[in-house]
Amino acid sequence: MKLIYNRWMLAIVAISILFTGCRKIDDLQKNPNVSDQASPKLLLTGIEYDMYDNAWSGYSYAHRMAQFFVLNFDYYGNQSYSWGAGGYDLYTTLRNVDRLEIEASKQGANMVTANYKAIAKFMRAWAYSRMTEQMGDIPLSDAMKAPKGIYYPKYDQQKEVFKQCLQWLDDANTQLDSINKINPATAVEGDVFFNGDISKWRKAVNSLSLRILITLSKKENDADLNIKQRFNTIVSNPAKYPVMTDNNDNLQMTYNSTDKSNNFPLYPSGGLFYVNRNPLGATWVDILTSLKDSRIFKIAQPAAGIADDPLNPFARYKGAKTGDIQSYVQDQTNQGKYASLSQAYWLKDASGIPCIQLSVSETCFNIAEGINRGWANGDAAASYTKGIELSSGFYGVTQSPLFWIQPEVAYKGNNAAGLNQILTQKYVAFFENSGYEAYYNYRRTGVPTFNIGPSNENTGLIPVRFSYPQSEYTNNGANVQAAVQSQFGGSDTRNDVMWLLK
Question: Nearest CA to 456 among 303, 319, 320?
Answer without folding.
Answer: 320
